[in-house]
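User: Hexosyltransferase, Eublepharis macularius:
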Amino acid sequence: MPRRGFLFQARTRWLLIGLAVLLSLLLFMYLLECAPQTDGNGSLPGIVGENFGKEHYQALLQEQEEHYQTRAMSLKRQIAQLKQELQEMSDKLKSLQEKKTPKVSSMGYQATKEQAPNDLLEYLHSQIDKAEVSMGAKLPSEYGVIPFESFTSMKVFQLEMGLTRHPEEKPVRKDKRDELVEVIEAGLEVINNPDEEDGQDEDDGIGERQLYNENDFVEGYYRTERDKGTQYELFYKKAEDMEYRHVTLFRPFGPLMKVKSETVDISRSIINIIVPLAGRTEAFAQFMQNFREVCINQDKRTHLTVVYFGQEELSEVKSILESVARETNFHNYTLVSLNEEFNRGRGLDVGARAWEKGEVLMFFCDVDIYFTAEFLNSCRLNAEPGKRVFYPVVFSLYNPAIVYANQDVPPPVEQQLVHKKDSGFWRDFGFGMTCQYRTDFLTEDLTWKSKAGVERMSTSTGSTCTVT
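Assistant: Predicted structure for Hexosyltransferase:
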């Protein structure tokens, strides 16, 4: 009995194993039959279908590339068509504006050469009228004057330096570079394409009109009135000419607009340099060396008036003047002696009245001032009788004994005359140096301030003259 029980259990196990195998085969066959079919030829990846799969994918890539190329060409054609339509619409709009809008006067200038609506032009012109461009404005004191900053094609002379900026440097900021380049090019556009109101003939009946370029730009000045806009004074000159072209532009927080364009001839403009003096013969001897080099040898259109206070060292001053006169055959000087205490305002008044040849441009100068021939031309260009006086901002040098303390001997004076942050600063608070015409000076109500640097500024700002 036990053996039959064991045999029955063994047969049962084998039967279960056989059923399990049969079920596995059926499941496998079911999976083969019900599996999803693959795209294409249905070949499984492997050695047999490998070459056919590469060709298939290459064909797909080729098809996609052709599709994208066709799409790109279609888009290019559409863009070209839109550009053409936009140009046609712009031309139609421009023609309509020219018919409906009156011509802009010579005061209006835009770099884009497009006409603006009347209301916009009226607003821009009103900003020019409000600004101190064409005529002066009454100011409470000298400190109400908005100073100009000067620039050339390479450098900008900055009054406000702070901790990072320098008194003379190339414009670092891109917006400032772009602004000055745009202004210079706009001035050239005004000169080379003058309006009828400018009075410039096309060819003067002789030949073609002379064209100016960027190399003819000499110097410029600009200042910004924060509630009105920025004013630009530009000067151009050909190397072989004696005349300057002066262009005034204004940017009323909008496009550049032309205010004035004129030709300035300074070839016959004499400058009477007036120097009040008391003692300081060594400084005067050094001043005369610079005067000899700049005024006598280079400029040759100056007169020197020295107003000397007191009798001490008067003979030395006379000796210096006579020595320069003998060596250079220069006799255009006047020495006025006053037996009084030094008073700079009185000395300037006496020196101005000592001139008896009519109208003249005067430069009030101190004995320790160093100037160049280019400055004398700037003095002539920026002063206009009855309209404008010129107050140059002086660069004041620090004590050379301190600046060059690490050297045994300070360098010559010519080598010290550099615009660097560690060598000096712009004295924008002083108005002692000025270029103005004699009639403008004498017609003002004089109030002398002994040993002060502001003898005339308080009265000049109350007149109709523009302070530059």
